[in-house]
TrEMBL record:
Pfam families: RVT_3 (PF13456), zf-RVT (PF13966). InterPro entries: RNase_H-like_dom_plant, RNaseH_domain, RVT-Znf. It comes from Brassica oleracea (Wild cabbage). Residues 315-410 form the Reverse transcriptase zinc-binding domain. Residues 522-641 form the RNase H type-1 domain. This is Reverse transcriptase zinc-binding domain-containing protein. One of its GO terms (molecular function) is RNA-DNA hybrid ribonuclease activity. CDD domains: RNase_H_like (cd06222). It comes from the Eukaryota.
Length: 673
């Protein structure tokens, strides 16, 4: 209390003893409690309340303590506004609100499996219900809904995976910030004589520590040894190559395996260059090619980084992605989606129609419509003959394409039939044809893009006939679809006009001249893929817009665009330093560089960033700017000449061919402001 009183005297903040409470352990006697209360002057006992939405004490049944999550979620889902939402609205509600409700709890503790199951059950029931508190058939499993949209899912989160990905964030903080108060407390309690990654659960661990250990299991799966000198990286023990996940390399059949081999033994002594012959002799060809792309920084010590992000820092998004990759690797029967089907799923979500109809198209492809054939597959005994034509099994394809009623609607529309002259038995092929019709230049947009409304009204007409015994004429159905499509298109026109104005406004933002006593250096890189040569280019212009020098060079294969941008910037800075250029403005249109330097203090930062920072300090005055692509067009054009035209020869000069001089003059004088 003396310490707290001293703090109050110094800061002016005084503890309100009337509002304060004390939490006692279960084994504290009544006499001890009374003595402590009298000494401190606090009468209330706490522990039953909440702090930041979580219980103050986590003793007893964790399922019971965390049951409030289900109640809060159910309260949101039972709100009056949720009952009137379309599928598109429900998707937004689930992603932005429902899955966000338990995030703080999941960031602190590992939710029991029963709690996750109850939350998942509530979300599933809400997704498939129609708002009148009646349970509906879940046509697609929640696991499938949690897949990405280009894989046939809806991009929802699997709660158990999401929970572990969030807890791994806490584990990463302990690993990367060992001097923080939380890390020091945990070290003193659980791993006083070992490192965090090697520590065990310990004796009498708290629920919070066991939760962090659960997150650490994921973190360890994605940690990658970043190669510096290679002296402390054991080749056959450490994860130092990155495939789909960080892993230990595979040894080549028939090669001699030295268990003490270190990465530095694979380098030519005194250099950062791989001994190519030794690498290909020791490892499989696949792993050898991966290793040859690694750029050792022999002036740096090896470091441990998160291997699934460009900047080496852990993110819950990349952690969740790693869990999905691991699940695919460990699953014996992996569902491989053909590229053409994956493309159709992606295109479906870009269809120009309402969110409700995009979800309707998804339900068609997913088999999630309550036709008789699908109801029979769920154990409901009924006659599966089509009620409309009394001929053929009523499945989704029959209702929307093959029933005489549906065929009459399609015949009246302006949408052409498939090349075969008839609708396919495959719903996939039929939707593929309809989507492609909307893309054809020869097809009027209002004609080719009306198919979602036609499908929707055919389905509504089927339901009206089955449940209300009302039969509508095909011409009426088509007319309704065309009217609704036209109304929607008219409502989009103002938005489209505003968008085009923004694009024009951005496009006229050309290169600006620097102040008279400064020079401006625009630089760019060109990267195609990890197996192709990439390039960099820069151009220096004075305050009058005149090009002083420009240059380009090619780089060996690099793993991603960020590496290419960093290599280009490092080379540009070295050239500017060698040319003794001072008072310079560096401009780039790369969004990756801003992220790299924003995380410069991160332990996972690329070693090139440190070298670039050192070079920056060598200029007496400089400025860096991120600009629009149009402002950086000359440098980008020169860089692209390597990857596009295979002009691999490096140069530095002030002249150049006429096309380059014309481009420089065009882009150097438009805006002098």
């Amino acid at each position: 209390m003396n310490c707290l009183n001293s703090y109050g005297d110094a800061s002016g903040q005084k503890i309100n003893l009337v509002k304060s409470s004390i939490i006692f352990g279960a084994k504290v006697s009544a006499d001890a409690k009374r003595a402590v209360k009298e000494t401190l002057g606090i009468d209330k006992e706490g522990g039953d309340g909440t702090y930041l939405g979580l219980p103050e004490c986590f003793s007893g049944s964790k399922r019971q303590l965390l049951s409030f999550l289900r109640r809060k979620l159910q309260g949101r889902l039972n709100g009056w506004f949720a009952k009137s939402l379309s599928q598109g609205g429900k998707e937004i509600l689930i992603k932005s609100i429902c899955l966000a409700l338990p995030i703080y709890a999941m960031s602190c503790f590992r939710l029991p499996k029963d709690t996750c199951a109850r939350l998942r059950s509530a979300l599933t029931e809400f997704w498939w219900s129609n708002g009148n508190n009646r349970k509906k058939i879940a046509w697609v499993a929640w696991q499938k809904l949690c897949k990405s949209k280009d894989q046939g899912g809806l991009g929802f989160k699997d709660l158990e995976k999401f929970n572990q990905a969030l807890l791994a964030k806490q584990a990463a903080r302990v690993l990367n910030n060992p001097d923080s108060l939380m890390a020091q407390v945990l070290k003193h309690r659980y791993f006083k004589n070992s490192s965090f990654l090697d520590s065990g659960v310990g004796s009498r661990p708290s629920f919070a520590w066991r939760s962090i250990i659960h997150g650490r299991e994921l973190l360890q799966q994605g940690l990658l040894k970043k190669i510096g000198s290679g002296s402390d990286t054991v080749v056959w023990w450490d994860r130092w190559i990155l495939d789909s996940i960080p892993r230990v390399p595979d040894y080549r059949q028939g090669s001699v395996v030295d268990l003490t081999l270190r990465v530095e033994d694979l380098l030519i002594p005194g250099t950062g260059v791989w001994n190519q012959e030794l690498v290909f002799r020791t490892f499989t060809r696949k792993d050898a090619e991966i290793i040859m792309k690694i750029k050792p920084e022999i002036s740096h010590t090896n470091s441990v980084v998160w291997g699934l992000s460009r900047n080496g820092s852990y993110t819950s998004k990349s952690g969740y992605a790693l869990l999905e990759i691991i699940e695919e690797i460990n699953t014996s029967q992996v569902e491989i989606i053909p590229p053409v089907e994956k493309k159709l799923w992606s295109t479906l979500w870009k269809t120009k129609t309402t969110p409700k109809l995009r979800h309707f198209l998804w339900r068609i492809l997913s088999g999630a419509l309550a036709v008789k054939e699908r109801l029979r597959s769920r154990g409901i005994q009924l006659n599966i003959t089509c009620s409309s034509c009394n001929n053929g099994v009523e499945d989704i394809g029959h209702v929307l394409f093959h029933c005489p009623f549906a065929q009459e609607v399609w015949a009246l529309s302006s949408i052409p039939m498939p090349p075969s002259g008839a609708w396919s038995r495959s719903i996939f092929l039929n939707l593929h044809h309809l989507i492609n019709c909307g893309k054809r230049k020869s097809q009027a947009p209002e004609t080719g893009q009306v198919f979602p409304w036609i499908l929707w009204h055919i389905w509504k007409a089927r339901n009206a006939f089955c449940f209300e015994h009302t039969r509508l004429y095909p011409a009426v159905i088509l007319d309704k679809a065309l009217v609704e499509a036209e109304v929607w298109r008219e409502l989009q026109v103002p938005t489209l006009q505003r968008t085009s104005q923004v694009v024009v406004a951005q496009a006229i933002r050309n290169w600006k001249k620097p102040p008279t006593d400064w020079v401006k250096c625009n630089f760019a890189s060109s990267w195609v893929n990890s197996t192709s040569v990439c390039s960099g280019a820069w151009i220096v212009r004075d305050g009058y817009g005149k090009a002083i020098f420009h240059s380009r060079r090619s780089f060996p294969c690099l793993p991603n665009p960020l590496e290419a941008d960093l290599c280009s910037l490092l080379w540009t800075l070295e050239d500017m330093a060698n040319m003794r250029v001072d008072k310079v403005i560096f401009e780039s249109s790369s969004p990756y560089l801003r992220e790299a330097f924003r995380l410069n203090s991160s332990p996972g930062t690329n070693p090139m960033v440190s070298r670039i920072t050192q070079l920056f300090h060598g200029f007496s005055e400089l400025c860096t700017e991120l600009v629009f692509d149009e402002s950086n067009k000359v440098a980008s054009f020169i860089a692209n000449s390597v990857t596009r035209d295979q002009r691999l020869q490096s140069y530095i000069g002030s002249g150049g061919p006429s096309w380059l001089q014309t481009l420089i003059s065009q882009k150097s004088g438009f805006d002098s402001s």
